[in-house]
Specification:
mainly beta; 7-stranded antiparallel β-sheet
Length: 150
């Protein structure tokens, strides 16, 4: 009797786990996802104000670069190093119009950075990571999600 319920339960569990959004881990040298990534941007920002958690709410983009696949495939690897060359992806520094093999924006102390356009649940590019490097060169990562009105 129990065996007739195994298939629907298994299908339900597969459906639930496949709907789980992408998760990201960012370090000083790379970004990693639990699934293949799609194009996203990396920006150096100047902050005007932050909220009570320390996350920028008003900021200006100083420089911006977009990472994309070299081989025309829409998907990127699950792990992308900022400053190591790869045959699988390249960076387009849209501030200068230059294509590079590594991220051309160098992170420095007392700096703010934003990684945006990261795919979240159901393929929405709604996840962001703010990076702050303090005067002692300590990195803090703020994982946020863009609010949608629909």
């Amino acid at each position: 009797m129990l065996t007739k319920y195994k298939t629907p339960i298994l299908l339900f569990l597969i459906l639930i786990t496949s709907c789980k959004g992408r998760e990201y881990v960012v370090t000083e040298s790379y970004i990693k996802s639990n699934k293949e990534m799609e194009s996203f941007f990396f920006a150096e920002i100047e902050t005007d104000s932050v909220n009570e958690e320390g996350i920028p709410i008003v900021y200006n983009v100083v420089r911006k670069a977009i990472v994309g696949s070299k081989n025309g495939n829409k998907k990127l690897p699950k792990k992308i190093f900022f400053y190591l060359e790869s045959e699988k992806f390249e960076w387009n520094d849209i501030s200068s119009g230059v294509m590079t093999n590594t991220l051309s924006i160098k992170m420095h102390e007392n700096g703010w950075y934003l990684i945006g356009g990261l795919m979240g649940s159901f393929g929405n590019p709604d996840k962001r990571v703010f990076i702050h490097i303090d005067k002692n060169n300590k990195y803090t990562f703020y994982y946020t999600q863009t609010v949608s009105n629909w």
